[in-house]
Amino acid sequence: MSDNGRVSSPDPTTALRPRLPSPLQEIEDDRFARHGVRLLLKRDDLIHPQLIGNKWRKLVPNLSAAAGRPLLTFGGAYSNHLRATAAAGRLLGLSTVGVVRGQELADRPLNPALARCAADGMRLHFIDRSTYRHKTDPATLAAVLRAADAEGAYVVPEGGSNALAVRGCRELGAELRDRADVVAVACGTGGTLAGLAAGLAPDQHALGIPVLKGGFLAEEIQRLQESAFGDRRGHWDLDDRFHFGGYARTTPGLDAFADDFEARHGLPVERLYVAKLLYGLVSLTEEGAFPRGTTLAAVITGSPLPA
Ligand SMILES: Cc1ncc(COP(=O)(O)O)c(C=O)c1O
């Protein structure tokens, strides 16, 4: 490593050997078939064993842009994004710093997700919730970087959604051009949908299922598209009815639905995002939201964490 913390790192796209384009699989499910709807699964969960789904598409452009500098990013104690960043750091020999929400966690044993990050070499820096909320404010960010001893780091926002990530996700849309009428994806920060919609053909539609409660996401997606492409792109909208109470909230009905989907199709169903997406699509199909003859593609953006 040189004085400014840079290392000469290999090109992430070749070094990480992704499975791209990700497979597109048709599944037989009578809840769709009886309404004349075909269901395809876009298996982004198979892109890479550690950089799964949208993590690959969002992180790799940022890893290239970091050009060997340490990479610093943010997340909660169960963040998939922190885990993926830590794994990428290990695979590419880059140092990573994870800024974790919750100062109180600093004095407790690490949960399995954070323990995995640490095992992958990520340096964890815990901050209080109020500072965390203001982390995009330039003065707060500068103070956090100083306190984390990471002033030269390349900073990736929470959830990994910046303009580069959104442009990376445009490739997901491009892989699905003319393969489906409607492409649906679960949304957290909205970066994946922002890119996906931009990559689709003009007669295709992108549908986002937010897993957080709040109704603020459409504005944020528009902002992300403007930062990545200069203006709003593609045809997209959101259906806000399937968050099940908010992030990481579930119900016995949703759990039973996900168990049943796994048993029917042999697909491991990630519970925080993908279960809500698939539940939403079954409900919308049963409501008659898609005309007969519609081909629907569901993006499988993640897989369950190993126990
Ligand atoms: C498995 C999974 N699916 C979907 C998303 C949502 O992605 P985005 O934040 O780009 O909306 C995430 C969050 O990063 C995720 O971990």
Automatic annotation (TrEMBL):
Keyword Oxidoreductase in record: no
Transmembrane spans: none
Annotated Polar residues bias: 1-12
Cofactor: pyridoxal 5'-phosphate
Stretches the record annotates as Disordered: 1-21
Superkingdom of origin: Bacteria
Alphabetical UniProt keywords: Pyridoxal phosphate
Residues covered by the Tryptophan synthase beta chain-like PALP domain: 22-301
Family: Belongs to the ACC deaminase/D-cysteine desulfhydrase family.
This protein's name: Pyridoxal-phosphate dependent enzyme
Protein species of origin: Streptomyces neyagawaensis
